[in-house]
Amino acid sequence: MIYLDNNATTRVDPAALEAMLPFLQGEYGNASSASTFAKPVKKALAKAREQVAALLGCQPEEILFTSGGTESLNTALFSATQLHTDRRHLVIGSTEHESVLKPVAWLEKRQGYDITRLPVDNMGRVSLEDLATAIRPGRTAAIALMWANNETGVISPVPEAAALAEAHGIPFITDAVQAAGKIPLSLEGLGIHSLAVSGHKFHAPKGIGALYVNRHFPFKPWMLGGGQENNRRAGTENTAGIAGLGAAAELALHHLRGHAGSGGGGGAESVRQLRDRFETEALRRISGSHLNGDPASRVPNTSSLRFDGVQAEGLILLLDQRGIYVSAGSACTTGSLDPSPVLTAMGLDAVEARGTVRFSFSRFTTADEVDQALDGLEKSVVKFRSLFPAEDRNG
């Protein structure tokens, strides 16, 4: 098996699993309990909070645990809109994840919010000038701009955008689900109001994530009930998941600093080198192949490639038969017949968008796997084109 779909999900690091096991077995206390039996659980939550804060470059008290990126982003958006209920305008990137696009669409349709969707250029980049123009002083309730795109890996100018938002007193929200653990983050002093991460994107289990909430800014909880997470997120904590998230965050930081992971592989630069070699060879060996997105400003593990005369769905099936696992784009919308909104926003037509495949690597990816994937990709493209000549595809 060659797994190159790590933007969809990642394998759980053995060290993260080891950190989880005590809380799936003997240490099953409730952190809200006053009993001594709950002390190990409380200690585990505090440790994980410190580990996640270290990865993000913030203070532990600014971290609250959630079920993942979708909950974190929904919480951030709905909280921000409650801070200034008289402001009815939102600014978002046009290539945001569905977990931003759909709640914003709900606010637009059901609550009457006016939405400005920032365009991107043909490299997938947002313009700070467009953002500055979009801001309506005294009327803009929040700005949401993802740090790294889940399909192309393109990095947005988040620090600069957050500074612009802060200068106007506007909460700035960023989706860092595809950035955390892949590029260095240091949130202290950036003026970001809230930031979302998801554990299963950096070798923690599924169903656990975190929301950074800047301690200098107000925050209104979205989930109400008990007083967990310092009254910011109700619901009994997923202790095992949180312990795994903390361990994975510590490993990710170690990895970003250039050290080998517990299950093999080198630091972040080694992932970039494997991705670049795969990309260079694929573009050289396969005629009619193209890179989508900014080649210079993107996370080191992601490659979005399109192939003339190929439909991604068919190519993915051919690769699957060879034990090579990739995707056409966001795993959250796989199966949709519509071309990727991210790629069409970049100016690709429907045919080009449908011919795009995303390859995403991890620290567990090996050089041998890259070589095998290249061979399998080249043969699969040739096979698809022979099975479906251009006149058949166009007819």
Task: Compose a concise summary of this entry.
The protein is of the alpha/beta class and 395 residues long. The protein has helices at 14-20, 39-56, 69-83, 98-111, 128-134, 158-167, 228-231, 239-256, 268-285, 312-321, 341-345, 350-354, 367-387, 390-394; strands spanning 2-3, 63-66, 89-93, 114-118, 140-144, 172-175, 194-198, 209-213, 289-291, 302-307, 324-325, 356-360. The strands form 3 sheets. A 7-stranded mixed beta sheet has the order 2-8-7-6-5-3-4, with helices on both faces.
Q: Tell me the fraction of residues in β-strands, as a range.
A: 5-15%
What global shape is seen? globular
Lateral strand order in the biggest sheet:
2-8-7-6-5-3-4
User: Share of helix among residues?
Assistant: 25-40%
- Which residues form runs of ≥5 with pLDDT under 50? none
Task: Indicate the radius of gyration in whole angstroms.
Answer: 21 Å
Kindly provide the name of the CATH class of the largest domain.
Alpha Beta
The number of helices is: 14
Number of strands: 12
CATH superfamily of the largest domain: Type I PLP-dependent aspartate aminotransferase-like (Major domain)
Oligomer: single chain
Structural class: alpha/beta
Could you spell the SSE succession in H and E letters? EHHEHEHEHEHEEEHHHEEHEHHEHH
Can you walk through the features of this model?
The protein has 395 residues and is α/β, with parallel strands linked by helices. A seven-stranded mixed beta sheet has the order 2-8-7-6-5-3-4, with helices on both faces. The chain has two domains: 2-9 and 263-394, Aspartate Aminotransferase, domain 1, CATH 3.90.1150; 14-256, Type I PLP-dependent aspartate aminotransferase-like (Major domain) (Aspartate Aminotransferase, domain 2, 3-Layer(aba) Sandwich). 48% of the residues are buried. Strand 5 (140-144), helix 6 and strand 6 (172-175) form a beta-alpha-beta unit. The chain is globular. It contains 14 helices and twelve strands.
